[in-house]
Amino acid sequence: MPTGVVGWWPGDGNGNDLAGGNAASLQGAASAGAAGIVGQAFSFNGTSSYAQIADSPALHPANFTIEAWVKFDSLDSVGSGGSPPGDQYIVFKQNSRSSSFEGIDVRKTRTQSGDVLALTVTSASGQSVQASSFSTISAGVWYHVAAVRGNNFIQLYLNGALEGQASVNFPQDYGNLPLYFGSSGQSYWDHKLAGSLDEVTLYNRNLTAAEIASIYASGTSGKCKTSGLQNQLLAAGKQSGSFVFTLTGQAGHNYSVESSSNLVQWTTITNLTLTNGSIQISRPMVGPKMFFRSKQTS
Predict the structure, then answer these.
(1) Which contiguous run of DSSP H or E holds residue 213?
(2) Counting beta carbons within 10 angstroms of the beta carbon of residue 130, is it exposed (0 to 12), middle (13 to 18) or buried (19 or more)?
(3) I need a surface site. Which of 74, 207, 236, 296 has the fewest CB within 10 A?
(4) Partner residues linked to 53 by β-bridges
(5) What's the domain count of the chain?
(6) Which tens digit of pLDDT belongs to each residue from 150-198?
(7) Does one domain contain both 87 and 116?
(8) In this structure, what CATH number is given to the domain that contains residue 238?
(9) Residue 192: which H helix or E strand, with range?
(10) Are residues 260 and 163 both part of a single domain?
(11) Which pLDDT score is estimated for 259?
(12) What is the pTM of this model?
């Protein structure tokens, strides 16, 4: 799993968060069964559906990167309040305000040149800064978007390339409302997403340009999704005096797997190259518990 991930919602049949306990709740006919870039994806109808994640301190990073794949079924959706035509919210976290309320705002918006992607952040005093892509967006196409907030800047990447940036001289401001996918969460100002969203990931750091380009280039291979997290007890597979560990990851990547019976001394089992996405590893039982951990090595 990449470093600095505080939330990872792949949309693979549910709203589970691979990085923690901040699961997404699907609302208003939203689903997690659409065809995605990597497995399945979230699907939103542009009228009533969205996903929400309950507020958590982990969702208030001072600096952040949000990256995801998005496909628009239509460039227009039903709006409410004063939200301008052509807008569609992708990922949104409200700040402490009820107007100029963009704590984190990744969306599609409409310009005279066409529809573009944008990142907006707004301070506690209502000062807003926006960075937009210069490439225009079409319906029916998967795009990779990455929105970066640094100490004094924001950046917007489209398909692995930097397309917009701006200076920021205020800290992030967060309220206590949920994190939303496909909606602003507010009926007085909203245009819901009409399309699909896949592999939504929130980091508590700035990804580098090279890291973002690498994620985009990985395409359908995606990021590493390994089930062997550090110090996680995986003893449910006990069979015939052994504990069975199932390593699940991305085919073609290398993984290092270790085991321990007491969490003090770890023994490396082997370095593995996954050819079909998963493999089972059996270790003799030593004591009543066996622990495994794994990491991607290349």
Answers:
(1) helix 209-218
(2) middle
(3) 236
(4) 179
(5) 2
(6) 999 999 999 999 999 999 999 999 999 999 999 999 999 999 999 999 9
(7) yes
(8) 2.60.40
(9) none
(10) no
(11) 72
(12) 0.79
263: Cβ contacts below 8 Å, ≥ 6 apart:
231, 291
* φ, ψ of residue 106 in degrees (nearest 5): -110, 120
Q: Is residue 45 a part of any domain in this protein? A: yes
- Identify the residue whose tokens are 């990167």: 65
- Band of the pLDDT at 229, cuts 50, 70, 90? very low
Write out pLDDT tens, residues 120-136.
Answer: 999 999 999 999 999 99
DSSP assignment string, 102-169: EEEEEEEEEETTEEEEEEEEE-TTS-EEEEE-SS---TT-EEEEEEEE-SSEEEEEETTEEEEEEE--
Asked if residue 211 and residue 280 are part of one domain, the reply reads no
Q: Residue 227 and residue 46: Cα distance in Å, rounded?
A: 33
**Torsion over CA of 69, 5, 52 and 132, rounded to 10 degrees?**
-50
Range of the domain at 238: 232-296
Contact 117, 145 (CB under 8 A): yes
With cut-offs at 50, 70 and 90, classify the pLDDT of residue 230. very low
Token code pair at residue 108: 């599609």
- Pair of tokens at residue 174: 């967060």
Structure tokens at 54: 């309950």
Question: Is residue 130, in this structure, part of any structural domain at all?
Answer: yes
In one letter, which amino acid is 42? F
Is residue 85 domain-resident? yes
Distance between CA atoms of residues 177 and 209, nearest Å: 30
Q: How far apart are CA 297 and CA 128, in angstroms?
A: 41
